[in-house]
Amino acid sequence: MSLFEQQLSCAVAIRTSSSSHLCNRAMRYAQKLAIQLSLLTSLAIAQDIPGRRIPSVNMLSAPLITVTRGKAGTVDLHFRVDRGFHINSNTPKSEFLIPTVLKLTAPTDIVVGKVIYPPGEEMSFPFAPSEKLSVYSEAFTLGVVVRPLASVVPGKYAFHGQLKYQACDKAACYPPKQLPVDFQVKVVKGQAVQKRNPGQSPHVHR
Known about the structure:
The chain is 20% helix and 39% strand. By secondary structure, the chain is α+β, with helices and mostly antiparallel strands. The strands form three sheets. The protein has a four-stranded antiparallel sheet with strand order 1-3-9-6, with no helix packed on it. A four-stranded mixed sheet has the order 2-12-10-5, with no helix packed on it. Strand 7 and strand 8 (128-137) form a beta hairpin. Helix 1 runs antiparallel to helix 2.
């Protein structure tokens, strides 16, 4: 049964007060299915058109961040999406869309904490006009929390990983890609805490 036929039969059911709740659920499911089918179709079209410009994401050079061992610090990684394209955010609103995810390999004795993803911008596109998608476009920044253990030898340490993303334009979505991610962190000693002797009472006699 087509979406139109379902809507028509549900309208009749609602007028006759029979199974209106079930029909509403069926209509919502059918609409969701139609949107997901549209997304899948747009992905297939993007792979089949020759000569189409393939989108990409670039990482800007990351400055060297200094982190005190034994304490947490945040490294900001800056990315830029090709003009005319967007990528899914870390929390896309359709299960058929692949989220943007950063995976990192940390040096020994340095812990990678949470990755801080910015909220996506909600936009709709011709391939799914009734669906608001959560996307990143142009420039966006991810924060990475790192914490060197107190036993780490001071020095520079390299981090490696991949940014997995799926890009789209206004007409279609593209197969997922992986962008290599590399940056360094400088680990330094913390300042030594100077212990001060407690002051003596002037009434103490020697």
